[in-house]
């Protein structure tokens, strides 16, 4: 009987190739922006009251080089005004820190819920529907509640600050993909291997650490990426909803309101938000690099 040829795991793209793909994607988007601005209709295209294609005028869609030139100019005409680059960088760092706090809190909460649900079927049946239902609540309705509840928290010298409300909302969005993704990953361990661990009288913690968690890595990494993106979006939107000052969300709003004949200014703030997303994606990729050795080898037939 002929022996079946051994198969090797499919190699993941190398880091230089991934970086090249990312840079190429940014360049393609930049080229598409300038190409549409050069060829698209100045007043856009409407179908009734619906905008089908955006306008390409300099007021609505400035050139990329105009945006980058604006970075080197002061925010306003007041004395000592920082450049737009400095102001956007400061606001981006504030939002990045808040989003990171929310993401970390969401990861911890989502992981605890997943561990509870995987160890107790009754908890899964009771909690999972509410976990899914929680994501249907709009942020515009949630933000005032979080601010109100937070202002009522008093513990000694501890004072609930506005950025904590923003971080709580970011964590609220981040915990869902972690809980669902990790739960699916923890349940992905093969039944034969679970039976093997039971035959060796391995306890719940040993089975979790040596079997279930390694099996869940392939599900956990995408969940971490989605949670990170949700935390960034949640932090930016929550800054606007809660009225918090200093972050990139309020900066985008302020620059958009006061743009007037300065269309490049709000786009500079939007680019700052995009950079936050890229930084977060890169950070999660580094986490994935550290967890790579825990992945189970996947064979192709």
From TrEMBL:
Membrane-topology descriptor: Multi-pass membrane protein
Domain ABC transmembrane type-1, first and last residues per copy: 92-288
Keywords from the UniProt entry: Cell membrane, Membrane, Transmembrane, Transmembrane helix, Transport
Coiled coil: none
Location within or outside the cell: Cell membrane
Transmembrane segments: 93-118, 130-151, 163-183, 219-238, 269-291
InterPro entries, alphabetized: MetI-like (IPR000515), MetI-like_sf (IPR035906)
Pfam families hit by this protein: BPD_transp_1
Keyword hit for Heme: no
Family, per entry: Belongs to the binding-protein-dependent transport system permease family.
Protein name: ABC transporter permease
Organism: Gryllotalpicola kribbensis
